[in-house]
Design brief:
Blueprint (H helix, E strand, L loop, with lengths): L8 H54 L8 E3 L2 E3 L1 E2 L2 E2 L10 H4 L6 E6 L2 E6 L9 E5 L8 E2 L8
Antiparallel strand pairs: 1-2, 3-4, 5-6, 6-7, 7-8
Length: about 150
């Protein structure tokens, strides 16, 4: 009596086809989960920036400090502009990025009186971002609307 060893070519092909079908259905769902996770991460950063902006404003106001004088939050010196954290680095003081305590998962790109916060590992970081605009003489600081796509 002859004992069969191994698999036939047809059996191997069937298994490979089944694995291919499973991978083709699971991959789009996995990609959707990653995008959702990046959006949630960015929303968390947006909330941290908004909170830091309001805490810095409240700290400066409650201590009676002039609107363009820097403050210290959690041991970090924050440059202030018109009562709110600045968008760009001013000397040794930090901006809203440092005030919010954002990690290395984010990067910041300074612009004119604003800073863009991006998720570093996004496929296109520039489209997975939000903008913090520093206060002006007539407008308070603002954080751009929520991000729901582009990550």
């Amino acid at each position: 009596m002859k004992i069969q060893q191994g698999f036939t070519l047809i059996e191997l092909i069937v298994v490979i086809v089944i694995l291919g079908i499973l991978a083709a259905t699971a991959l789009p769902k996995f990609m959707g989960i990653q995008s959702g996770a990046r959006i949630s991460t960015l929303q968390g950063a947006r909330g941290a920036v908004a909170s830091a902006m309001n805490i810095a404003y409240a700290t400066q106001t409650s201590q009676g400090i002039a609107s363009n004088v820097g403050i210290t939050l959690d041991g970090i010196s924050i440059a202030m502009l018109n009562g709110y954290p600045s968008a760009s680095t001013a000397g040794a003081a930090s901006n809203i990025y440092a005030a919010a305590g954002l990690s290395a998962d984010y990067s910041s790109v300074a612009g004119t009186n604003q800073v863009t916060i991006q998720v570093v590992n996004a496929p296109t970081p520039a489209s997975c971002s939000f903008v913090y605009s520093a206060a002006t003489a007539t407008l308070p600081a603002r954080v751009a609307a929520s991000v729901t796509s582009g990550c």
